[in-house]
Amino acid sequence: MEEKLRALKDELAVYMDLYYASAVLGWDQETNMPPGGAQARADQGATLSELAHRRITDDKVGRLLDDLKAYEESLDYDSDDASLIRITRREYEKRVKVPAELVAEIARAGALGIEAWKEARTKSEFSLFESALQKLIDLKMQYAECFAPYENIYDPLLDEFEPGVDYAQISAVFAGLKPELVKLVAAIGENLDAVDDGPVRGEFTDESQMAFGRIIAKDLGFDFERGRLDLSAHPFTTGFSHDDVRITTRTLQDFLPSCLMSIIHETGHALYEQGSNPAYYRTILAGGASMAIHESQSRFWENIIGRSRPFWEHYHPLLIEHFPQLEGVDRETFYRAINKSYPSFIRVEADEVTYGLHIILRFELENDLFNGRVKVGELPDVWNARFEEYLGIVPPDDAMGVLQDVHWSQALFGYFPDYLLGSIFSVQLWNKLKEELPGAVDQVRAGKFDEILGWHRQKVHRHGTKFTLPELSERAVGGPLDWQPYMNYLNAKFGELYGL
Amino acid sequence: MEEKLRALKDELAVYMDLYYASAVLGWDQETNMPPGGAQARADQGATLSELAHRRITDDKVGRLLDDLKAYEESLDYDSDDASLIRITRREYEKRVKVPAELVAEIARAGALGIEAWKEARTKSEFSLFESALQKLIDLKMQYAECFAPYENIYDPLLDEFEPGVDYAQISAVFAGLKPELVKLVAAIGENLDAVDDGPVRGEFTDESQMAFGRIIAKDLGFDFERGRLDLSAHPFTTGFSHDDVRITTRTLQDFLPSCLMSIIHETGHALYEQGSNPAYYRTILAGGASMAIHESQSRFWENIIGRSRPFWEHYHPLLIEHFPQLEGVDRETFYRAINKSYPSFIRVEADEVTYGLHIILRFELENDLFNGRVKVGELPDVWNARFEEYLGIVPPDDAMGVLQDVHWSQALFGYFPDYLLGSIFSVQLWNKLKEELPGAVDQVRAGKFDEILGWHRQKVHRHGTKFTLPELSERAVGGPLDWQPYMNYLNAKFGELYGL
């Protein structure tokens, strides 16, 4: 078995190298590539994706998995070897259903789509993105069809980011949460002026924002010897091994929290990737398990830590140092300002309460798109109509509406719900963490994060891709995903802020 | 035949995508990669190199080449189809001799070697680079052995950069040139104070240097929509298609010509790459033909144009705008300053006269290394001894001596002679250009470069990789490579400068 396992690992090493090389190409496209490079980059990405796909769906892999079946079953489910074989099998069985040419086509369309999206968003003209988006949706429809019969054509797309979690399950979670969110938004709406975000609006230089964000990322545990922070149109995290993890952000000169909270959010993703077990390097166990688990990490650091009073007890003086114009803004005023809740247009700038509605809108819309109930050409109107229904406001243009997110341009349909599932899970993790590490809040107050990070390393990071969200949830917090603690957290935090 | 040719092009497209993807990884390593990323980058590069190698040495390619033989012979030698088949055959026959594992090993050792070199150069400690260099030489020895029997083990290495040109041929050229260079260096040496480079020594900010260089690159024809300019430890050019060509430079705050001339040099390479025929994209005909031809382009723009009086007639006012401290330095004084000739340590900063000796030293040393006459451990001493013999000065440390160039750390043995061959050829091109475009010098004087670039596009760039140096030389200047015009150019230029 030793030898078969070695052979499987050799195949995976090449697969992972190709995957990481694609990620380098993607990072470069977002941060450095000149406009002319788009077509060649699309071709290169398509080729790498196709070769990676061919590698993991090779008959040799299928045979090795068969040969290793008995060995896998003889092992503890949680063990490295059993998990490596299990996760490889899951990927093999999923990918073997999809033609390599389609994989290449989707990669190519994604690389070109992002350029079309950038232009469309800059000019706020949906029509400039429409044909690229139509093509992406057609291709992802073909992709989903490979998995027929399915209960919902949206399920195979969701499964790409959240293995083993389908539309019905997510719907059930959101169905419980949605009315509670609507109720809280309404209650806050009646007391909107209780919190003022004027202090974080003004004029903030890019340099100060980046310098301040860099210090915080480092304090939280981001290792700049094994990563970078850069600018891009849309903040993201990517990695080319646990030892080279890149995060990006963007700056708004008139709204301080945007850059800062993006950096903390992406740092959360990066800590997860940098915390991957080095022994898993070049195996399929390396990296993060699922996007909801990834978002549990990013949303944990962004919101539960970064938007908390204890955090700003420590960082308020450094804030004033970097932004002397905030001299007169005391700690509490600043804390309140970065937590003002109100209906706004941009998801990544949204407060914690309205955030969930941004996600549920996208989740429902994607489901309607792929089930043919909404056409691509109708998207701007449908977006605006639903936005008004959910948040009571109408985007002034498409850049502030349907064009705001990068995801669809890269063929990432089915990703959005994971932001909310991750937010929900982050609160369960935090509650458990406080139980097991009673001094956690005081540590945040002291600007000490190593034990909190260590807890996440132990409970989440070290497992790599071993477990699905339900499996990891059992192991980390002793029960399934549960939206109630999340809602309790929001009600408590915002009830206090708004005197509800 | 249509169908076979299509099939061959499909194989080449994947090969080229892998080649370009490797180049993206290499560029990122030099410009952006955090230190931790080295091991993973080495693995990724090794995998891409191995897959590219396997692609072009696949039996399928061999069979297609056999099937296409008669078709190729029915065509004009210079035609696109015949050239595509011929160059593919040349690559196939060369690469099929080398095991894929060795290709991967060399790529891996090169990616790790560059990190070892960076540290060694920074600390000026050859011992930190020694074991990486030993490994690289051992691997390249194995590589060369794949081509036995050879006349000289150095030949297969030279052939990588200059197809069809071997040690004996290059030796013959250098044997003619060397005594002439030595004579000119000696003559200048007796009149060293005739030219003063004091004016270009001082304090020059990075920002001004880069801003000025950027304008010049653009004026020469570098298309920033299809390329970038960045900083790296050692200036270089790379490309990921004709539409995405990256150049880098470095700045010395106390010596103005370094950054500026590097930018012009790399712009020369980039113009060649950006000028590749778009119809050759994703075929083996895309890009530059050989490194000597590449250097004929870079050295042409750097020296013949960038270090000429007419050039500075146009740029002197802009120079003063960017560097007000040079207000009192008139055009002629500046022209003389950037052409001061004297024995110096660093090849890339060397004047045109001594430059050739820097190259000949390396050429002879590489030949001795691979023929076992010099051991790796002896390199610093041998370097310093020969440097004193050739240039009359002894490097004060290894960073200024044997560690100065990046090439060996990336397994690029056999590249150096191409700088001098290219310099020689650049003068033949210039002489021919002036014949066919009598207003060329006046155009330089007016800061107009489009016709000069157009001539190079027509004579050199549009051919892509079709021709070897001897073939291209016949077609572009109507005769073989000839060092005499180069020596005449140097004697005339420096004779006048030094009143010889």
Topology (SSEs and partners):
2 copies of one chain form a homodimer.
Chain A: H1 2-31, H2 38-56, H3 59-74, H4 80-95, H5 100-123, H6 127-145, H7 155-161, H8 167-189, H9 206-220, E1 227-231, E2 237-239, E3 245-249, H10 256-274, H11 291-305, H12 309-322, H13 331-337, H14 352-370, H15 379-391, H16 417-436, H17 440-445, H18 450-459, H19 469-477, H20 483-498
Helix pairs in contact in A: 1-2, 1-3, 2-5, 3-4, 5-6, 8-14, 8-20, 9-10, 10-11, 11-16, 12-13, 14-15, 16-20
Which second-level CATH architecture of the largest domain in chain A applies?
A: Orthogonal Bundle
**Spatial strand order of the main sheet of chain A:** 1-3-2
Structural class call of chain A reads: mainly alpha
Largest sheet of chain A: 3 strands, mixed
Number of domains of chain A: 2
Average residue pLDDT of chain A = 97
Biggest interface found: A-B, 37 and 37 residues
Order of helices and strands of chain A: HHHHHHHHHEEEHHHHHHHHHHH
Verbal overview:
2 copies of one chain form a homodimer. In chain A, strand 2 and strand 3 form a beta hairpin. In chain A, strands 1-3-2 form a 3-stranded mixed sheet, sandwiched between helices. Chain A has 2 domains: 2-149, no CATH class; 167-498, Neurolysin, domain 3 (Orthogonal Bundle), CATH 1.10.1370.30. By secondary structure, chain A is an all-alpha fold. Helix content of chain A is 63%, strand content 3%. The A-B interface holds A 13-14, 17-18, 20-21, 24-25, 27-28, 32-37, 39-41, 43-44, 46-48, 51, 223-228, 240-241, 243-244, 281-282 and B 13-14, 17-18, 20-21, 24-25, 27-28, 32-37, 39-41, 43-44, 46-48, 51, 223-228, 240-241, 243-244, 281-282.
